[in-house]
Design a protein that fits this description.
The chain has 462 residues and is α/β, with parallel strands linked by helices. It folds into three domains: 2-240, Metallo-beta-lactamase, Chain A; 251-356, 3-Layer(aba) Sandwich (Oxidized Rhodanese, domain 1); 360-453, Rhodanese-like domain (Oxidized Rhodanese, domain 1, 3-Layer(aba) Sandwich), CATH 3.40.250. It contains 15 helices and 24 strands. The chain has a six-stranded mixed β-sheet. Strands 7-8-9-10-11-12 form a six-stranded mixed β-sheet. Helix 3 (155-169) packs across helix 5 and helix 9 (298-305) packs across helix 10. The protein is globular and about 70 Å long.
Length: 462
C-alpha cells in the first residue's frame, strides 16, 4: 500500500493519496491539485478515483479539475446531489485499488451525505487498517452538526444522526484501526480538535470527550450548545463544491497596477488587502487597507472577513507573496482579485500617497501602562472560548469575525490596544478598526501567549 497525507496548515485541512499496484485514489483534495498528480506519477500510480467524504464548507475542492486531468471517477456518498456525474457509494460498497479495498460506511451527522472510508489489505487482513473519517470524527472532537441548515435539517436532527454514526458504526471498529480526519486544530468544522493529524479508534474511545458513554439526548444537547457562528463563506463554498469549481487560474494573469490606479480603484470601492506580516504592516501601510498576513491561517480569515465578490487589490512583499495569496484566496472561493500594487508599498510612498502606521506594543509596555492606570482600552479579538480560558485583566471581548459588524462602543479617539493569541489576528483587528475611524491603535506583539509567558496575571470570567 502506498499512502501519503497532505496537510495544509492554512486551512487545517488534510487530504490523502492511497494506492496499490499502479492504481490510486485521492480523498478530499484541496483546490490546487498538482501535488496529487506529481505524487502519483512519481509512485507509478494512475489516479482512478477522486473521493469526497462530503460537501466541504470551509474550502473549495479540486475534485472536478483533478478528475478532468486524470480521467478519474468522482465518488460521493449516495445521498449527495452534485450537479455533475458521480459514482455513488453506500454502506458496505467497495472499490478496488490493486490489493487495497476501500470499504464505505455512511456516516451522516456533519452533513447528510457524509461517508467514511476503511482501507484494508485484501491479501493481509491482519495489516493495519486506515479509516478516513472526513468531518465525522476528528482527533479529539467530532464534526459540527449545524452547518447545513439550508438543507432542511435542524442541528438537533443532524446531531442525532452523528450520534448513531459514531456509536453504531465507527466505535464498533477495532481499537487498532488508524483514524485520519479531514481537518485539525484551527478548523471551524469542530470545537476541540487536536493538533495531532492521526490517531486510533482506541485512543479516541478513551480520550475524545464526544465519544464518552452518554445517552443520545445528552449528546445532542452537548453538540448543539455554544457553537461558534459559522463564517458566511461556508454556505457559498459548499455550493461551489456541489456544482464543482473550475480549474484554478494561473496566478500570472493578475496584472500589476501603479499606485495612482490602486488609489483610484480604492476610492471606487475596491478593498486593498495587505498580506504582509504584522510588523511590516504596522511600520507603514495604505490607509484603509485590511491586513491578513500570509504567515497564519490566511485563507480561513480571508474567507471570514472578505465578502464573496468583493473587488480586491493585493499588497505583498514581493511577487512570490502575490502568487501565494492568489492561490490561497482561490482555495476559499475568492477569485475577484483585480490586480496587485506594482512595486509594493514602496511605490505608494514614492507617489506621495497617504499612509498610516500601527505601533507594535510589547506585553511589557502593555503591562506597565495598565499598572500606571494609563487611559488605554484593551480589546481581545480571540474567540469566546479562548477569552474565557484567561485574558488580560480588563480586556473586552469581541471576536475578530464580529468586529466589523459590532465594534467597540467606546470613543474611537481613545487609545486602544488589540490583543489575540499571538499578534496575528490582532493585527487584522487593528486594520478593521482603522477603517471604522479608530485613531490611536496598538497591536500587542506575541498576544496573550507572550503575556502569560511573562508571568503577568490573567483574568477569567466568574
Amino acid at each position: 500500500m502506498i499512502f501519503k497525507q497532505f496537510y495544509l496548515g492554512c486551512l487545517a485541512h488534510a487530504s490523502y493519496l492511497i494506492g496499490s499496484e499502479g492504481e490510486a485514489a485521492v480523498i478530499d483534495p484541496q483546490r490546487d491539485v498538482d501535488q496529487y498528480i506529481d505524487e502519483a506519477s512519481a509512485a507509478g500510480l494512475k489516479i482512478k478515483y477522486v473521493i469526497e467524504t462530503h460537501f466541504h464548507a470551509d474550502f473549495v475542492s479540486g475534485h472536478r479539475e483533478l478528475a478532468a486531468r486524470t480521467g478519474a471517477e468522482i465518488v460521493f456518498g449516495r445521498r449527495a446531489d452534485p450537479a455533475f456525474p458521480f459514482h455513488p457509494v453506500g454502506d458496505g460498497d467497495e472499490l478496488r485499488l490493486g490489493d487495497v479495498r476501500l470499504r464505505f460506511i455512511e456516516t451522516p451527522g456533519h452533513t447528510p451525505e457524509g461517508i467514511s472510508i476503511l482501507a484494508v489489505r485484501a491479501a493481509d487482513p491482519t495489516a493495519v487498517q486506515r479509516l478516513f473519517t472526513g468531518d465525522t470524527l476528528f482527533i479529539g472532537d467530532v464534526g459540527r452538526p449545524d452547518l447545513i441548515g439550508s438543507k432542511g435539517f435542524s442541528a438537533e436532527q443532524m446531531a442525532a444522526m452523528l450520534y448513531d454514526s459514531l456509536h453504531d458504526k465507527l466505535l464498533g471498529l477495532p481499537d487498532a484501526v488508524e483514524v485520519y480526519p479531514a481537518h485539525g486544530a484551527g478548523s471551524l468544522c469542530g470545537r476541540n480538535m487536536s493538533r495531532e493529524t492521526m490517531s486510533t479508534i482506541g485512543e479516541q474511545r478513551k480520550f475524545n470527550y464526544a465519544l464518552q458513554p452518554m445517552a443520545r439526548e445528552a449528546f445532542v444537547a452537548m453538540m448543539t450548545t455554544d457553537l461558534p457562528e459559522a463564517p458566511a463563506y461556508f454556505s457559498k463554498d459548499a455550493e461551489l463544491n456541489r456544482t464543482g469549481a473550475g480549474a484554478l487560474d494561473d496566478p500570472d494573469h493578475v496584472p500589476p497596477l501603479p499606485a495612482t490606479e490602486v488609489a483610484d480603484r480604492q476610492r471606487a470601492g475596491a478593498l486593498v488587502l495587505d498580506v504582509r506580516g504584522s510588523a511590516a504592516y504596522g511600520a507603514g501601510h495604505i490607509a484603509g487597507a485590511i491586513n491578513i498576513g500570509l504567515g497564519g491561517q490566511f485563507a480561513s480569515w480571508a474567507g471570514s472577513l472578505i465578502s464573496m465578490g468583493t473587488r480586491v487589490i493585493l499588497v505583498a512583499e514581493d511577487q512570490d507573496g502575490v502568487s501565494e495569496a492568489l492561490v490561497r484566496l482561490a482555495r476559499v472561493g475568492i477569485e475577484s482579485v483585480e490586480g496587485y500594487l506594482d512595486g509594493g508599498v514602496y511605490s505608494w510612498y514614492a507617489a506621495g500617497l497617504p499612509t498610516l502606521a500601527t505601533p507594535q506594543m510589547p506585553v511589557d509596555e502593555l503591562h506597565a501602562r495598565i499598572e500606571e492606570g494609563a487611559p488605554l482600552r484593551v480589546l481581545d479579538v480571540r474567540r469566546a472560548g479562548e477569552y474565557a480560558s484567561g485574558h488580560v485583566p480588563g480586556a473586552v471581548s469581541i471576536p475578530l469575525s464580529d468586529l466589523k459588524a459590532a465594534p467597540p462602543t467606546w470613543d474611537p479617539a481613545a487609545p486602544t490596544a488589540v490583543v489575540c493569541g499571538s499578534g496575528y489576528r490582532s493585527s487584522a483587528g487593528t486594520s478593521i478598526l482603522e477603517t471604522l475611524g479608530f485613531q490611536e491603535l496598538y497591536n500587542v506583539v506575541g498576544g496573550t501567549a507572550a503575556w502569560t509567558a511573562a508571568g503577568y496575571p490573567v483574568e477569567t470570567p466568574a
